[in-house]
Design goal:
This protein is of the alpha+beta class. It is built from 1 helix and 3 strands; from the N terminus they run E-H-E-E.
């Protein structure tokens, strides 16, 4: 985000992969700290393909000129 001169308020969509379903409540709490008001659209799923990490997040940001 920084390299594109964007911030968390510019995020419009995020895709989240979690290692386990049990990780979702904790993840959701932390996610809410980064997006306390008007959080972006989000998709989340559990994936066995994550190796050595518990969560992966991909974000799309939009900042009009």
């Amino acid at each position: 985000l920084r390299s594109a001169n964007c911030g968390y308020t510019d995020v419009v969509k995020s895709m989240v992969w979690l290692k386990s379903r049990e990780d979702f409540p904790g993840f959701n709490t932390v996610y809410g700290e980064y997006f306390p008001e008007g959080p972006p659209t989000r998709s989340a799923l559990v994936s066995d393909f994550l190796v050595d990490i518990r969560v992966e997040i991909e974000c799309i940001a939009y900042k009009p000129d």
